[in-house]
Specification:
mainly beta
Length: 638
Amino acid sequence: MYRLSILNSTIVLVGVSLGSSFFANTVSAQGVGCPTTAGNNVCLTTYQGRATRLGYNPNEATLTQAAITATTGAKFHKQYSVAVNGAIYAQPLVLPNVVMNGITYADVVYVATEQDWVYAIDGATGNVLWSTNLAPSGYMFDQASDLKCSNILPDPGDIGVTGTPVIDISGNKGEQTITSGVLYVVAKLKTTTTPYSYKQTLYALSVINGGNGVSATQPYASIDIGGTFNKISFSQGVIGNVPPYSLTQNQRSALLAVPVAGQSPQIVIAWGGNCDRVNFPYNGWVMSYQLNSTQSALTQTAIWATVPAKHTYEGGIWGGGSGPAADGSGHIFLATGNGDSSVNVSTPPNDAPTSCTTVPCDYGNSILELQISGSTFSVLDFFTAYDWVNRNNKNYDVGSGGLMLLPAQSGGNPKNLLVQAGKEGTIFLAQTSGVGSLGGFTGNGVSDATVQSLKQVLCYNTAAECGVTGGGAWWATTSGGGGSTGYAYFAGTNMPLMQFQFYPNGSTCTNSGTLAGFCTTPTAQTTFAFGWPGPNPTISAPSGSSSQAIVWAVDSRRAASKGPAALWAFDATTLNCLYTTNQQTSAGTCTVIAPSTDVPAGIAVKFVVPSVANGKLYVGTTGDTSTTQGYLNIYGIS
């Protein structure tokens, strides 16, 4: 059965706790239901902080540049390494002022692991407040040996929860505290005895006790994932001639909650494949589920596949841990990977763009705008890369990287935009409204119809797989002057972290006339080059008007060799190094080279993104011993 344990001990302690850190903030907290009073009021409820996936926290008044580089007095350092069951691929989520058993915890960190465990951990002490094993009786997590591939590193490659969960606190009425909330998470499962049977299950858990808020031994609800769209099925069960999709489909994408007035949100889930060449065929799937009003049952509300014709496949939704994004109208945006390699038997937009408004189409190597319509997802708009054939042949997926919906640009030309980069290393800037503006497919074989395309600017070697296999980050600021309203940050494989300044009405550096655009070359970059697979940066600043932001990134290059992760902090304006735990960094290249005690415990994992909230920073890793399968590393100032 579903199992939960309540603990009150710190598993591994490093250093001394500062304790609760409260501060006044002039910027409102994120999200409906988040505490509105002064104090710890940042709610990190979804991947990169919000449904737009910007990776920007403008409410971080404690982790300032001066505090990070301090060498006397209170210093920024690793305070705890908390051992957990399983590697942490999903981004840690954070809620402030959570009431559990009559005690208010300043910050609670929610961690999901590849061994199908979910934890609530006190950010101030490292104590485990509750832990839940999602596997029902007779089931356990999958393993790399089931798939004959090792895309979840390092060995043995346990595969349970990979996609970042999402938390809904819209029903919370505490105002000053959080007394209720629902965490949604997808677990991969297999039977403990042969012949193995496989399934994937969506769970809805209470953020207060890991159960249903009353009983800590039962979730609010759970539902086994499945369904059929256009005669292809997301199947479950025992391996036969074709492995079930519940085994081969990789739920890497972060979950997305789309608000519904007066109801629970629609939970949108996306899939690609696990080691696509080995476990073929696969499809890009999107499904949505909703919790009922009594919080007792989950129902599938829509199902769709990116390449849904009878003899077609691929179009996986990867994103390196990023997930579908949503705008204020509930429109959903996502990017796909390589499409059907046998285009003669499908009708992709690449072959016949106009046909895609009426019949199923191949939406490989595309950016899509969707909305839930009846029991499926309607494609409102699409952009397909002009060089989709070359991308298919060379494995240059558009959708290897996630996308960000930029803040609406008042007076911008155009006003509503997204930015995305993938494995070829090209940055796309595309218009998101109205319908028909995303870019479509040119069919001319030489150019794209997006607002801007910076071809292969993030690729170190155009003859090899390179580019981005994760997400970017955005800093909304006018500190750059000249009409600029912010910067985007990306890091391609084996390249520096790069900053691209954005102008909503163009500039001499954008080559876009009066149209919005990024400078065509980086406006700053780090002296350090990140290894494969490249980092997923995130940004914090003391306020929305501050010019003193920090870009945080984790170098995971040693994941394949079972080495440690390296945490980096850079000045967001100059990308000069402020702090690093990389012990090989030479003197003079970074303001603070941290001692070895600050190195994240455990082994690096791919696609990790650090979480920054309320004066703390959290980094997930996997285990470095046979008895410790993962760590949550907690950094703060003390």
